[in-house]
Design a protein that fits this description.
Helix 1 crosses helix 3, helix 20 runs antiparallel to helix 27 and helix 21 runs antiparallel to helix 27. The chain is flat. It is α+β, with helices and mostly antiparallel strands. Helices cover 21% and strands 31% of the residues. An eight-stranded mixed β-sheet has the order 5-4-3-6-2-1-7-8. Strands 18, 19, 20, 21, 22, 23, 24 and 25 form an eight-stranded antiparallel β-sheet that branches. The chain has a seven-stranded mixed β-sheet with strand order 14-13-15-10-9-16-17.
């Protein structure tokens, strides 16, 4: 029914679609169902916004069967138009579906009996109405007449005057006409009631069918696709078909676009893939086709279900068999394709498929071919019936042979070549493979290989999952499932799921396996099985599975029941004496319900028999084993068993076993067992054994005897109480102190044995008998070995007392060490020290008990031959209990030779003294020397041949032994030179006894004359410098005596060209002229003569000569000048130090010169002039030399200079000077012309335009440089033009500079222009500073309503410069919404105004405060804009307003955070801007640095060129090192020149003033000596005249100083000058000596202080050594110090290498908050204590301790929970140290035995090694050990606990040194409370280093410092001694020199006082001559006078 109603309405919608086909905008179709009586009679209205209908169209519509195909031959005028098929469009959505002229009328009269057509065609002012009734319409249409030709109503839009009351709903529709340009309304009335009922009741059903019919018109070519699997839809015009049902007060409205459940929507959205194709028929008909695949997902088909089965009543050719298949069979028997014609569904035509989409033998499952749906789209070429319910021959046309099918490419939408069937099959296979998912595999775990039970090809890969989902149920790992289709019902727990293939995540697929663990556990031998997932019983419930497993579990044995027969019950943990029998017993096997089973497991057809096995285990060893089978009525029986004698814990185990293989495990499950533990202990003591005694027992030393108690089975047992042992031994005295019991041991403590040993060096064996009264076997005898005891006394044996020893010989002592019984005792490391005065300390090893000590030779000073008494002291330092022993020594004089005497028996008797100095004539002989020998007693020793053979002399090589035997020595030849003394020695036995003396040779008589010249060369005209030394010498050339001044008259000298002089020695040698060469000078004195050769060289260089002169051309001189350096006589006089330069005259000429070749050996040099620069004119080039400050004259050359046409000399700048410079604009064109020397314009290459802000004098470091641009066509060729340069954007004064810079410094030209940059045109209004975004609130507080405070607005140009100086007006302020947002309520200003005006004066407006009104309107959270609009009259340009956004809130509290965020946002925005500014600044600085580098490089090149011009040749840039080296070289040359003596003007200036110049002699220099001499002589009377600038200044000077000064007497003055000079030199020398003395004294004091400080340091360190146990009274030598240091170091290394107990776990973790493991935090010294505490804390030893809980949690996570951790901050312990429990109020409640202490007190904390707080370590062990107590043994511990309990005191856990534990609950005994041996403990506390370890380290440290101090003392003393010798000789020599200089100074002072000086006119003010007379002195001829001109530098 719903489909029929939908088809009827579809006919009217078809017409509406055709009418709206040409709409350019939206297409709207509305169906109104008016079934509300209040609106009038029922009606159905169809409205559209199409083109409308004219009167003719209305006539045509009324004709029945007037189709588009027949209108061309119509007899009606209105049908004259022809029909044209529309163009092809996708899906044929052409809206051409109003075809036959039947559907509309049939639909109208199917639903009602009358219709009203209302239409307004496009462009028509009128509305046309046509009313038809069903009866009348049928009558007229049969006659083919025009219907109501004359009765079509034409009216105005909106005119409803003709409407009756029962149709009042039309009034609303007609009223809507005025707003529409064109429309059509179909109004159906007289609706049949059954239609009304159905339409009202089934509104959703028929609207869904209608949406199905027009699906593609509504949704476009791709349909209503919610997932983007189809191609992108085209640009389809929107069609809205809206249905409204008004059946009650509430109307229902449905846009067909909103329908989600029409069939096409279901097909499209259920499809996962599409196959698009095209069919072309032979008559060129085109059909578009589409197949959609609906896969199998989860556990169901996704093919949509059709809610209705359509039938076509009355249609014979339609198939009624359209039943849907089962819901699980996808499409079933339904057809594949639905068919659409021109985009509209033709409902009664469906096609079952084509040959190529049917199953034909392919391997695809059959159900795949029922999982796709299809749709076909045709156009009007394929005919449909007039009712549009079916196609005429569509299937026939498509299935005819000529039809061609092609697949459409889904991307390009174009046909693709290929076989359609192959394409389809491939597509279907791919869909099935990728889209069909029967099982959902969930939680992928990985990929594995399954080689077992799989074919080779399927062994891998297998993806593993933990869950699956199928048939709506999820199965997870761990779930219990039941399986069907197995041999028996099987249940199991899911382990994992397998799926073959590569899968990396959750997926859907068919097949797969499941791995299970069979349940119940223990029933199946094969526990793990793999089965197909398909065998899972999906119908099984959890209850049924649970019941089945429970039933199966009852078959399993669960426990054993034990019955002890004969009443011999064995309690659990029973303790039995050794030998007690056990049994008999009976055993039954029970199931889980406690029922006895028949020892059989029934497994279907299989049966398994069970037995019971009995085993007794002791210490993991099986001591008894038996098996009992099942006996009916009794069960399993075992007989009695005995002989348990071994002590310890036993375990009796009864196990259920299988009879076949004696196994205790079945189905992976342990069969039931029964365990019973009992203990066998020892009996009472009946005998004992003596424990092992030490093999090194000593006399008098206490030792212990351990006795072990035993029972009758020889088991160790406890000793009986109150037993007193007895000890006996032959020849020994025995005693003991006490006895102690510990466990099974009875220890006799403090046993001492005394007696005389027969063999003291060895040991003696004795029988020791021990008796314990009361035991069955009470006596035992054992052997003991007794050694001598500890050292007790020292015995030193000697033959006599005192002991006599000859001086120089050693002495021997026998030493024995005795114990207290007098036995010689051996003791390792026993050293005896012997100290004898004068000898080093001697030590002797007495480890063997006795030794012989031989001293070093005793060397004592014998006085007068008398014996000397000494005392020897013997002691053992390591044994303080042994008293020292002393013995006396008598040292007798030695008979060995100890002294020697020498004497001479020549002409004079001469007795020599040892170390005597003897003067003897040079070349002479000391003859007849004899010697004698004496011993220590003064007795002469006869000389024997043996003695003579040991006599050695240091002179002569051939010594006669016979003479030596007679006491005579060889003769001594005296050396011939007297310059030094000679040492001689006679020695006996390699200098053991020796005699020394020194010979000083003396000169002989004179034999000749010796002449010594100070130098071998003298220059012409110069006097030989220095003194000529003349001496008289003897035959060996030794100077005999000094010559006095009186001898000078007897001297003479002669040579060729030698200047004669009366005093040749005083004047020296001088050759006034001649040529260079050698000269022989003959000196004579009395009868002595001597000739010497002197080389005469050329004279001092005095002139330069020009050898060759080049030609001059323009500015260049191409060839060099060649110069020769000569002396006064024209001889070439080369000197490499001469500097030659060329000076121009006048100086305005600039030269660039180059020395091509420096001064040669011949005195020639070559100079080239590279460049001449200057103005045109005539010049002279003067050559001058300079040698050591002295000027060397040279020649002069004339030069004519022509003008340079290429040299720039002037810049000319031309520009528009009256122009205005606006910010940001362009500069006017600057024309710059460069002129040369010739006055012509030139264009150099490097002209720049520079720009900076400020005045010309304020040039900054950074300037803007603008380069000259390329010229334009009309630019003048000889000038630069700078155009289009930008003016700065900031106003102010700027400077423009045009600069021309070349490589030559003097070519730098510039021209500056000052410009004033002004603001540009005003363009905007802006604040003077950045404003933050305001936030205001709906409130009353002013602070929360302020928008703006103290803001100044200014009119600026586009660059922010103030530009409104002449602008006045107002600023209008208003609030607006942002442009992009809708209009809303606006807030109001304070005063409830919308706008506010502020005055604008001179372009500036001040806003003091701006706020919104109290509780202002506005939307919460909205953003508004403040508009500040300037209103100015006569503004040159339009001004932009300023906008300031702000936020408005009406919730102050909640929005305050937003305010803060907004502020923070503004701050961050500003920060970002600041960063941008910083980046700009950095970029500018980077550019500046680049420019600096560039400028510096240019400057370097310029200066390098200047260096080349000035003679320093360098082609490449010099490094800073090379530059400094060159600078130092030139500076040194300059200093050499400045230090070179030169001629100076000697009169000092005494007056100065602004108008006083200088004296005449100070105003000029003269270079040449001769010229200076003659000019100075010429002006001698005027040299000291003072020159003033004015006459007034001259009159102010003293009148006597305006006169010429009378000079001093030249000769006397010169002499005085020399004396003064010499006096100054001597004074300086004396001062130098005094400085040297001060320096020596300071150094001496410094070295003394060093020695003193080093000694103090040594004493301090020695005291520290004594404090640390290294006893030393006297300073140690460096050798002894190092020996002691090596000894202590060796001891330290021995300690470190000795094995000791360590904590065995290595540390694997570290961090700032991690301490260590517990076992690493402390040491325990005692092994027993370490054993028991380590065992107590065994579970905590590897626990990591951290400082914080966070660090502990992190460490826990890092180790995945495998590491124990504990945090300090989570520990709580009491800080105070509480006393032991038996101590209350500092008093003991009872006297405990066993030495109780807290266990933690035995810990030695490693806080220093671990660098942590000690309190933290104490806290850790307080937390772990608490108040655990440590005692000696178990008896003491239990007694202590008992006493505490009696005093009502809680007792903590007690540990004993023997390894026992008494828990805090009082439990003790058993292996649980006994610590295993220490070597079996896994973790043990480490042992600390010995106590003396740290002391040794400190001793070694002090010894290191002591060695350094001793070395420092030795070095300081050596330095002091070495310098003392040096200082002594140096001071002695300098004192002599100083005395000589002092005497000479006194002599000079006397001479100065005696030199007469004439007083001149300037001498004093009281001159005798008249001041008005100026007298001139006579001119003198000396150059060196005080008034001569100075020499020029």
């Amino acid at each position: 029914m719903s489909f029929f109603q939908a088809c009827a309405l579809a006919e009217l919608v078809d017409n509406a679609l055709s009418a709206t086909a040409k709409n350019t905008g939206s297409r709207s179709i509305e169906i109104r169902m008016l079934f509300n009586k209040t609106l009038g009679k029922p009606a159905i209205i169809v409205l559209d916004n199409g083109s409308g209908m004219t009167s003719k169209h209305l006539n045509n519509w009324a004709v029945y069967r007037l189709s588009k195909f027949t209108r061309e031959n119509s007899t009606f005028e209105s049908e004259a138009e022809g029909y044209v098929h529309p163009a092809h469009v996708p899906r044929s959505l052409n809206s051409d579906i109003s075809f036959f002229g039947v559907g509309g009328k049939r639909a109208v009269f199917h639903m009602g009996n009358a219709v009203r057509m209302i239409s307004r065609p496009l462009g028509s002012p009128d509305v046309h109405e046509l009313v038809l009734s069903k009866d009348e319409f049928q009558k007229k249409e049969q006659k083919k007449q025009d219907v109501y030709r004359s009765k079509i109503l034409n009216r105005m839009p909106g005119d409803f005057s003709h409407i009756t009351n029962d149709e009042q709903f039309l009034r609303t529709i007609i009223a809507e006409e005025t707003e529409k340009e064109s429309f059509t309304v179909v109004v159906i009335t007289g609706i049949f009631q059954d239609h009304i009922n159905y339409l009202k009741k089934n509104f959703k059903e028929w609207t869904r069918e209608l949406a199905h019919i027009y699906h593609y018109y509504i949704h476009g070519v791709n349909g209503n696709c919610k997932a983007d699997i189809s191609p992108t839809s085209d640009d389809f015009r929107r069609i809205d078909i809206v249905v409204t049902l008004w059946a009650s007060k509430k109307k229902e409205r449905m846009n067909l676009r909103e329908v989600e459940d029409d069939m096409q929507t279901l097909f499209i959205n259920a499809a996962k893939d599409t196959f698009e194709f095209r069919a072309t028929t032979p008559d060129r008909g085109i059909v578009e086709g589409l197949l959609r695949y609906h896969p199998f997902l989860y556990d169901k088909e996704t093919y949509p279900e059709d809610p209705f089965v359509y039938q076509a009543p009355g249609e014979d050719d339609y198939n009624n068999e359209r039943e849907s298949g089962a819901t699980g069979q996808a499409r079933g028997r339904r057809d594949i394709f639905q068919c659409f014609w021109n985009g509209r569904l033709i409902p009664y035509t469906a096609i079952s498929g084509f040959d190529w989409c049917q199953k034909k033998g392919f391997k695809l499952p059959e159900e795949c071919y029922s999982r796709f749906s299809g749709v076909l789209f045709t156009d009007s070429k394929f005919h449909v019936s007039a009712t549009k319910l079916k196609f005429m021959e569509l299937e026939k046309q498509l299935k005819q042979p000529g039809t061609h099918f092609t697949r459409i490419c889904p991307i390009q939408k174009c046909p693709r070549r290929g076989d359609i069937q192959k394409e389809f099959t491939n597509w279907l296979q791919n869909c099935h493979k990728t889209l069909d998912k029967q099982v959902e595999f969930i939680d992928y775990k990985g990929t594995v290989k399954r080689p077992e039970g799989q074919p080779k090809k399927k062994q891998q890969p297998w993806a593993v999952f933990s869950s699956i989902k199928q048939h709506g149920r999820r199965y997870n790992a761990g779930d219990i499932v039941m399986f069907q289709k197995t041999p028996s019902i099987l249940c199991g727990t899911v382990v994992k799921f397998f799926l073959h293939g590569n899968h990396k995540g959750d997926t859907f697929a068919t097949g797969g396996d499941v791995e299970i663990k069979c349940e119940p556990e223990g029933l199946y031998e094969e526990i793990i099985k793999v089965l197909p997932i398909a065998k899972i019983d999906k119908t099984a419930t959890d209850e049924s599975i649970k019941d089945h497993i429970e039933d199966e579990r009852k078959k399993l044995p669960h426990s054993l029941k034990v019955n002890w027969a004969e009443g011999n019950v064995l309690p659990e943990n029973a303790v039995l004496p050794a030998g007690t029998p056990i049994g008999p017993l009976e055993v039954e096997i029970l199931n889980s319900d406690g029922d006895s089973i028949s020892s059989k497991i029934q497994m279907g057809k299989h049966r398994i028999n069970l037995s019971v096995s009995l085993k007794v285990v002791f210490n993991e060893d099986e001591v008894l084993s038996n098996t009992a089978p099942y006996i009916a009525g009794k069960g399993h029986c075992f007989n009695k068993f005995e002989n348990f004698r071994t002590l310890g814990k036993y375990t009796l185990t009864l196990s259920t076993v299988l009879n076949d293989n004696i196994t205790t495990v079945y189905g992976g499950r342990e069969l039931p067992k029964y365990k019973h533990e009992f203990t066998i202990q020892e009996g009472d003591a009946e005998s004992f054994s003596v424990g092992e005694l030490s093999s090194s027992l000593r006399v008098g030393e206490p030792f212990d005897i351990p006795l072990q108690m035993k029972d009758c089975y020889n088991h160790p047992t406890k000793p009986p109480p109150n037993i007193k042992p007895a000890l006996q031994s032959t020849d020994l005295e025995l005693s003991y102190e006490t006895t102690t019991c510990s466990g099974v041991l009875l220890t006799i403590q403090g046993v001492k044995a005394k007696g005389k040993l027969l063999n003291s060096a060895m040991f003696e064996s004795y029988d020791l008998k021990v008796t314990l009264p009361g035991l069955k076997d009470d006596t035992q005898t054992t052997k003991i070995s007794l050694h001598p005891g500890n050292p007790h006394s020292l015995l030193v044996k000697s033959k006599t007392n005192p002991v006599e020893v000859e001086n120089g010989n050693p002495v021997s002592f026998e030493i024995e060490v005795h114990d207290e019984a007098g036995n010689i005792t051996r003791f390792p490391g026993l050293e005896v020290h012997c100290q004898i005065p004068g000898l080093l300390l001697m030590t002797k090893d007495c480890s063997a008990g006795k030794a012989e000590l031989v001293t070093k030779p005793v060397k004592e000073k014998i006085v007068n031959g008398e014996p000397q008494i000494l005392e020897a002291r013997f002691e053992i330092p390591s044994q303080k209990q042994v008293a020292p022993v002393t013995r006396q020594l008598m040292v007798m004089p030695s008979k060995q030779i100890s002294r020697m005497e020498l004497f001479s028996q020549g002409e004079e008797e001469l007795v020599l003294k040892n170390n005597e100095k003897i003067k003897w004539q040079a070349g002479g002989v000391l003859e007849k020397l004899f010697y004698k020998l004496y011993d220590e007693a003064g007795r002469e020793v006869p000389i024997t041949a043996e003695i003579a053979s040991n006599i050695k002399v240091t002179w002569g090589t051939d010594v006669d032994q016979r003479n030596l035997v007679n006491g005579r020595l060889p003769d001594l030849q005296i050396p011939t030179h007297v310059d030094e003394e000679h040492l001689y020695q006679v020695s006996y036995q390699e200098k053991k006894v020796s005699f020394c003396f020194k010979i000083v040779p003396c000169p002989d008589e004179p034999a000749g004359l010796k002449v010594t010249l100070p130098q071998s060369i003298v220059k012409l005209g110069e006097t030989l410098s220095g003194d000529i030394k003349l001496e008289l010498v003897d035959q060996y050339n030794n100077v005999t005596k000094k010559l006095t001044s009186t001898c000078g008259k007897s001297f003479s000298a002669e040579a060729e060209g030698l200047e004669n002089s009366s005093c040749i020695v005083a004047i020296g040698v001088r050759f006034p002229s001649g040529s260079p060469g050698s000269r022989v000078i003959c000196f004579s004195y009395k009868d002595y003569t001597e000739n010497v050769v002197l080389e005469v060289a050329a004279g001092v260089p005095s002139q330069l000569k020009l050898v060759s002169e080049p030609n001059q051309n323009g500015h260049d001189i191409p060839t060099p000048f060649l110069l020769q350096l000569c002396d006064d006589w024209g001889n070439p006089s080369p000197d490499e130090n001469i500097n030659v330069e060329i000076k121009p005259s006048p100086v305005t000429l600039t030269l660039t010169t180059e020395v091509l070749t420096p001064m040669e050996t011949e005195g020639k040099t070559c100079i080239k002039v590279n460049r001449v620069e200057g103005s045109k004119g005539y010049y002279a080039l003067e050559f001058k030399g300079s040698l050591k400050g002295k000027s060397i004259p040279g020649p002069s050359v004339n030069l004519t200079l022509l003008p340079d046409p290429n040299k720039p000399v002037r810049l000319s700048v031309d520009y528009e000077k009256n122009g205005k410079f606006c910010a940001g604009g362009k500069f006017p064109v600057f024309s710059v012309t460069v002129f040369s020397e010739e006055g012509k314009a030139i264009k150099p290459a490097d002209l720049s335009m520079l720009l900076w802000e400020g005045t010309p004098s304020m040039r900054p470091t950074i300037v803007t440089e603008l380069k000259y641009r390329k010229p334009v066509e009309d630019e003048w060729k000889d000038c630069y033009e700078f155009r289009e340069e930008e003016i700065p954007t900031r106003v102010g004064e700027y400077t423009v500079e045009f600069s021309l810079q070349t490589n030559k410094k003097e070519d730098h030209l510039w021209s500056q222009i000052s410009v004033n940059v002004v603001a540009n045109e005003p363009v905007k209004l802006e604040p003077d500073c950045q404003q933050q975004t305001p936030v205001v609130f709906y409130c009353t507080e002013m602070a929360n309503r302020i928008l703006v405070e103290n803001m100044t607005l200014k009119i600026t140009d586009q660059f922010g410069n103030l530009a409104g100086q002449n602008l006045n007006g107002t600023v209008s302020i208003s609030i607006k919404c942002p442009e992009e947002e809708r209009s809303r309520i606006l807030p109001l200003f304070d005063g409830k105004t919308k706008t506010i005006s502020v005055k604008l004066i001179e372009g500036s407006a001040l806003i003091n405060s701006l706020a919104i009104m109290e509780n202002s309107p506005g939307e919460n959270g909205s953003r508004y804009i403040l508009h500040f609009k300037p209103e100015v009259t006569n503004a040159p340009t339009s001004l932009n307003l300023f906008e300031l956004p702000f936020h408005f809130y009406n919730d102050t509290e909640n929005q305050q955070k937003k305010v803060e965020l907004m502020k923070k946002k503004d701050e961050l925005t500003e920060s970002v801007k600041e960063c941008d500014k910083l980046f700009d600044k950095i970029r500018n600085e980077k550019d500046l640095l680049k420019n600096n580098v560039k400028d510096s490089t240019k400057k370097e090149v310029s200066l390098r060129n200047e260096l080349n011009e000035r003679g320093i040749r360098t082609e490449h840039p010099l490094s800073i090192t090379d530059s400094k080296r060159c600078l130092e070289q030139k500076t040194s040359e300059l200093e050499t020149i400045e230090k070179t003596p030169r001629r100076i003007f000697s009169i000092h200036r005494n007056f100065s003033g602004p108008d006083i110049l200088e004296m005449v002699g100070e105003l000029a220099f003269v270079a040449d000596d001769d010229i200076a001499r003659v000019i100075s002589w010429q002006l001698q009377g005027d040299m000291d005249c003072i020159i003033t600038t004015t006459t007034e200044a001259a009159q102010k000077c003293p009148e006597d100083f305006c006169l010429l000064v009378d000079l001093l007497d030249t000769e006397n003055q010169q002499k005085k000058v020399e004396l003064m000079k010499k006096k100054d030199e001597l004074t300086e020398s004396v001062k130098e000596c005094d400085k040297l003395f001060d320096k020596i004294r300071n150094e001496k004091d410094l070295l003394k202080n060093n020695v003193k400080d080093s000694t103090k340091k040594e004493v301090s360190l020695r005291n520290e050594l004594n404090e640390r146990g290294i006893r030393t009274e006297h300073p140690l030598s460096i050798t002894d110090s190092k020996r002691c240091l090596e000894q202590k170091t060796s001891e330290l290394e021995t300690i470190e290498k000795t094995p000791r107990r360590i904590f065995s776990i290595h540390r694997n973790f570290s961090g700032p908050d991690i301490l260590e493991m517990v076992g690493e935090l402390a040491f325990v010294a005692d092994d027993d204590i370490a054993r028991v505490i380590s065992w107590q804390l065994q579970g905590d030893m590897d626990c990591i301790i951290t400082t914080t809980t966070e660090a502990a949690q992190k460490h826990y996570e890092d180790t995945q929970g495998n590491q124990q951790v504990m945090a300090l901050d989570s520990m709580f312990v009491y800080q105070e140290d509480r006393p032991l429990p038996h101590i209350s109020n500092r008093q003991e409640l009872f006297k405990p035995s066993g030495n109780p202490t807290f266990a933690r007190k035995h810990l030695i904390y490693r806080d220093k090694q671990l660098s942590c707080d000690r309190n933290n370590l104490i806290k850790v062990f307080k937390n772990l050990l608490g108040d655990t107590i440590l005692m000696d043994d178990l008896i003491s511990a239990t007694n202590y606990r008992k006493a505490l309990v009696e005093n009502r005191i809680q007792c903590p856990t007690i540990l004993t040194r023997t390894g026992e534990r008494v828990s805090a609950k009082g439990k003790f005994g058993g292996s649980q409370n006994r610590a295993p041996p220490i070597d079996r403990l896994k973790n043990v506390f480490g042992a600390p280093l010995p106590d003396n370890y740290e002391e040794l380290k400190e001793q070694i440290d002090v010894l290191h410092r002591y060695c350094a101090a001793v070395e420092e003392i030795e070095k300081a003393e050596k330095d002091h001694n070495d310098h003392s010798t040096k200082w002594f000789s140096e001071i002695l020599q300098k004192e002599k020199e100083k005395d000589a200089m002092t005497k000479e100074l006194e002599k000079i002072n006397k001479q100065l006082a005696s030199v007469p000086v004439r007083a001149g006119k300037r001498a004093s003010g009281n001159s005798e001559e008249s001041p008005g007379i100026a007298s001139k002195r006579q001119r003198r001829g000396s150059v060196d006078e005080p008034g001569s001109f100075s020499e020029m530098n």
